[in-house]
């Protein structure tokens, strides 16, 4: 069945082929061949006993037989050569050559046969000529069949290259030349040949030659049998070889003389042998012609139906074009409009009468005209254009967004004569698409820049989308969470409540607000306040989580301030009232002392009362200092001179086992402070340091000019950014446990034994510093000592120093990659922000192990910026050593809450190693980063 367009045409299938040399043999072919061979065998068996019976000579039989044989072989050869001209197989060429040679031999045999055209035959034939020709003829054909059998393959075997006509001419000439040579030998050289026939009877030589020829024929039959698969020609060639064997046997083996029964019967078998392949070829050709005639008849019948079909289809196509919602336009290759449907009229505003014949430029904006020429060039090159978005103009001048599909338009000859365009208006669609794109872009920007955590989960609680803010809030990257269940990150105590909130959202509750704790990457808990909702169409939960860590810290700090303020008000009030009482006591005790001066026992009692009152007065002083209500007498002082004076006073107080090391900045700024209270504060800090070093140690007194910036101020309440004079008291003692560090400034808190202290020393220092408008910071690690830094406001009205000028120099950043290692999450976040603001690429780690993992995975890190004192098995010094072992080229900058002098003298940092002491301003950070990177 053939298809033409949408129309189907039934054509009878052809189940046979003229190329019988490649067509596989069917069972019908094998059955017919077996029947013929069987009948031939029976007839042969019946003829053998009577083969020697002499029959009357009939020369006309010989002439007729030879003529029929030659004609049959020539026709067979011609048909085989016609197949060869198409298939070009050497096997077919070899077989057709055999048939040509047999035809030529048959003709020469007839011409030289005695008594047929001449008493002894033509060409000077002798008595042995026809016998030898018969042997050559019957021995050569099996050789050609053998060649065919061994050359043929499943696909026909090797092919002949070059022109087939030249090959055919060559084999024809070759057969003629070969036959001429054989004729010359058996006629002109007749006397040289052995005698095969004497007195019309066969000689022993004849018997040997015949046996050899018969064996060749049998070998050809066997070769055909074993050279599978068999084609149709193979089957009938085997039938031919069977008849050929019967021919030789009757004509030259079992018969006695010429013109006996075997003579005639053998030639009949030979005639049959020459006709089997011819008959099959002719039958197949007749069948093919019959089917061709039938096919032509059906095609003629179909053509009339096709004309009607295509006429209807053309009318249908015309209706489709006119009823299409898309504009369909045809134009010639020079751009002239040749077709314009109703949708085009509606879309562009031109009627068909107005548009047809006009150039397509009437609907093309000026800046798009080169595009039209490009499209026509592509169409003329047989190229189709699909989904091409562009702009066209209406008649009223309004621009339209359209999508074009353009195809070549062909004439009946196949020549491209124009273009067919389908234009679809996408103006509204494009506007909607652009609006959607903007909305998606806006939502994506919100998603990517949100400081809150945005999560999308499926109905089972598995993360589908996670906003990048998860890195800052939980320390994970989005890829760490996507695909995982939320239960892996939620605190176990908050799981049930979270699940209940999700169930409520799926029941229709919207914008549910609840709190849940999540685990940070470094293991600590982060409390998040969640707003969640459920979308039924997409089967997704949507959550927005706000980090409450800073809020909770601020609330805790606010509560602490309130508590301290309440305690301060209480203690201040108590101290004030107690001072009034003590005033009365100390005033009257003097009178009482004078009255009992002559009574030693009572004078001792009054002295005891006076000492107790003095101790009470000192206690109220401490309470007033803590409450920031003590009367201060601030004045501009030289902090270096005060620190040196304090160091002298401390030598006898602290004892010989403690070494005092002043480390004072030469150009320290003056501070506006009460010198007496400052000396007392230094004394209190030194006494605490002595108690932390029972076996001796080192006490470092330092002064330095610092500028605390807004970033540092934002992390410390009640502190204003500005210039400060720092006074640091550092020791090499036992340090303070982490759980107690936040309580050291609380009043009446002490770790000393009962009777060894009031717990007001540090709280008095804290109150004095705050009342003076300053700031105090304590750094301590168990086993590494303590450093307390007092920041006092710089006295105004002084000239800018050389150091200050240097600090106010332009800040220089860079583009290197820096790894920041800091165990305090808030400080780490602050440092990362500052480093990034300087242009650097910042990586962060909470401990040494995490930092080493990052170093191993990223070979482009330029600088390690690490805190020295960190919890765990690896401090900053050990981290730097291990990093240097893995990356010898990696530079290192240390930072610490301890001062540089304290660190060096504790023995934890080699001299000359770069250290940036906390706190530091941005300019100091920038300077030290550049110094470290250039080192």
From TrEMBL:
Domain (PAS) ranges: 313-383, 439-509
The enzyme's main class, written as a single word, is transferase
Name the reaction it catalyses: ATP + protein L-histidine = ADP + protein N-phospho-L-histidine
Q: Which SMART domains match?
A: HATPase_c, HisKA, PAC, PAS, REC
- Which spans are transmembrane here? 32-53, 65-84, 91-111, 131-151, 163-186, 206-226, 235-257
Recorded GO MF terms: ATP binding; phosphorelay sensor kinase activity
Secretion signal: which residues?
none
UniProt KW keywords: ATP-binding, Kinase, Membrane, Nucleotide-binding, Phosphoprotein, Transferase, Transmembrane, Transmembrane helix, Two-component regulatory system
Domain PAC residues, every copy = 386-438
Q: What is its EC number?
A: 2.7.13.3
GO biological process entries: regulation of DNA-templated transcription
Q: Which residues form the Histidine kinase domain?
A: 573-796
**Annotated positions of the 4-aspartylphosphate modification:** 867
Q: Which domain of life is it from?
A: Bacteria
Q: Fetch the InterPro entries from UniProt.
A: CheY-like_superfamily, HATPase_C_sf, HATPase_dom, His_kinase_dom, HisK_dim/P_dom, HisK_dim/P_sf, MASE4, PAC
UniProt domain Response regulatory: residue ranges = 817-933
- Write down what this protein is called: histidine kinase
Q: Which organism does this record belong to?
A: Bradyrhizobium ottawaense
């Amino acid at each position: 069945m053939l298809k033409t367009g949408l129309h189907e045409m039934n054509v009878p299938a052809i189940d046979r082929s003229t190329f019988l040399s490649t067509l596989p043999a069917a069972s019908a072919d094998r059955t017919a061949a077996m029947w013929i061979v069987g009948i031939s065998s029976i007839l042969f068996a019946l003829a053998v006993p009577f083969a020697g019976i002499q029959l009357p000579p009939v020369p006309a039989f010989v002439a007729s037989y030879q003529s029929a044989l030659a004609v049959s072989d020539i026709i067979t050869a011609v048909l085989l050569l016609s197949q060869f001209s198409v298939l070009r197989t050497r096997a077919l060429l070899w077989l057709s050559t055999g048939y040509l040679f047999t035809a030529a031999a048959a003709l020469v045999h007839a011409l030289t046969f005695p008594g047929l055209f001449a008493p002894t035959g033509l060409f000077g034939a002798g008595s042995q000529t026809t016998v030898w020709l018969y042997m050559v003829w019957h021995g050569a054909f099996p050789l050609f069949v053998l060649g065919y059998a061994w050359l043929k393959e499943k696909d026909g075997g090797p092919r002949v290259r070059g022109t087939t006509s030249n090959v055919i001419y060559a084999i024809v000439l070759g057969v003629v030349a070969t036959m001429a040579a054989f004729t010359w030998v058996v006629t002109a050289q007749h006397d040289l040949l052995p005698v095969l026939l004497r007195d019309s009877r066969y000689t022993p030589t004849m018997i040997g030659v015949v046996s050899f020829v018969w064996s060749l024929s049998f070998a050809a039959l066997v070769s055909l049998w074993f050279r599978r698969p068999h084609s149709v020609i193979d089957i009938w060639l085997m039938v031919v070889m069977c008849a050929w064997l019967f021919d030789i046997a009757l004509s030259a083996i079992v018969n006695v003389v010429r013109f006996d029964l075997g003579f005639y019967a053998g030639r009949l078998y030979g005639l049959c042998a020459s006709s089997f392949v011819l008959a099959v070829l002719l039958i197949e050709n007749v069948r093919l012609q019959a089917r061709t005639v039938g096919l032509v008849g059906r095609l003629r019948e179909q053509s009339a139906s096709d004309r009607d079909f295509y006429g209807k289809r053309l009318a249908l196509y015309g209706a489709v074009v006119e009823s299409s919602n898309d504009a369909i336009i045809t134009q010639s290759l020079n751009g002239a409009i040749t077709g314009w449907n109703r949708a085009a009229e509606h879309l562009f505003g031109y009627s068909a009468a107005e548009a047809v014949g006009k150039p397509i430029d009437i609907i093309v904006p000026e800046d798009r005209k080169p595009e039209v020429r490009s499209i026509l060039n592509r169409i003329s090159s047989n190229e189709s254009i699909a989904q091409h978005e562009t702009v066209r103009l209406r008649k009223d001048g309004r621009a339209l967004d359209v999508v074009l599909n353009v195809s070549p338009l062909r004439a009946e000859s196949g020549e491209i004569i124009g273009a067919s365009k389908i234009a679809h208006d996408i103006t509204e669609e494009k506007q909607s698409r652009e609006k959607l794109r903007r909305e998606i872009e806006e939502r994506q920007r919100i998603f990517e820049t949100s400081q809150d955590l945005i999560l999308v989960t499926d109905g089972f609680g598995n993360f589908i989308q996670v906003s990048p803010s998860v890195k800052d809030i939980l320390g994970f990257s989005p890829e760490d969470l996507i695909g995982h269940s939320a239960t892996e990150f939620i605190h176990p105590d908050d799981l049930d409540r979270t699940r209940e909130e999700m169930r409520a959202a799926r029941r229709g509750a919207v914008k549910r607000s609840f709190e849940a704790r999540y685990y940070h990457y470094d293991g600590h808990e982060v409390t998040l306040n969640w707003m969640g909702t459920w979308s039924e169409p997409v089967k997704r939960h949507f959550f927005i989580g706000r980090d409450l860590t800073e809020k909770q810290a601020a609330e805790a700090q606010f509560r602490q301030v309130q508590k301290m303020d309440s305690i301060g008000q209480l203690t201040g009030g108590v101290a004030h009232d107690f001072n009034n009482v003590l005033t009365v006591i100390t005033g009257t005790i003097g009178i009482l002392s004078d009255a009992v001066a002559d009574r030693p026992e009572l004078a001792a009692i009054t002295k005891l009362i006076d000492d107790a009152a003095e101790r009470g007065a000192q206690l109220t002083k401490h309470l007033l200092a803590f409450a920031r209500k003590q009367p201060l007498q601030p004045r501009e002082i030289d902090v270096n001179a005060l620190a040196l004076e304090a160091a002298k006073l401390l030598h006898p107080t602290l004892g010989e086992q403690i070494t005092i090391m002043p480390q004072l900045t030469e150009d320290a700024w003056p501070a506006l402070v009460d010198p007496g209270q400052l000396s007392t504060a230094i004394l209190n800090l030194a006494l605490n340091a002595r108690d932390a070093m029972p076996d001796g140690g080192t006490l470092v007194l330092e002064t330095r000019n610092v500028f605390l910036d807004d970033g540092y101020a934002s992390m410390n309440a009640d502190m204003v950014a500005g210039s400060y004079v720092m006074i640091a008291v550092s020791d090499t003692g036992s340090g303070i446990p982490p759980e107690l560090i936040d309580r050291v400034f609380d009043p009446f808190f002490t770790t000393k034994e009962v009777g060894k202290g009031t717990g007001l020393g540090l709280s008095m220092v804290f109150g004095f510093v705050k009342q003076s408008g300053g700031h105090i910071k304590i750094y301590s690690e168990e086993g590494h000592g303590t450093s307390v830094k007092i920041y006092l406001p710089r006295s105004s009205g002084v000239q800018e120093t050389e150091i200050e000028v240097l600090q106010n120099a332009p800040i220089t950043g860079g583009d290197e990659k820096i790894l920041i290692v800091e165990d305090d999450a808030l400080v780490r976040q602050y440092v990362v922000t500052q480093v990034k603001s300087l242009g650097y690429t910042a990586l962060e780690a909470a401990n040494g192990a995490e930092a080493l993992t990052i170093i191993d995975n990223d070979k482009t890190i330029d600088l390690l910026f690490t805190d020295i004192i960190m919890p765990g098995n690896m401090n900053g010094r050990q981290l730097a050593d291990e990093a240097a072992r893995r990356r010898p080229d990696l530079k290192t900058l240390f930072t610490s809450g301890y001062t540089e002098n304290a660190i060096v003298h504790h023995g934890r940092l080699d001299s000359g190693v770069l250290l940036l002491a906390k706190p530091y301003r941005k300019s100091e950070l920038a300077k030290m980063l550049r110094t470290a990177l250039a080192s």
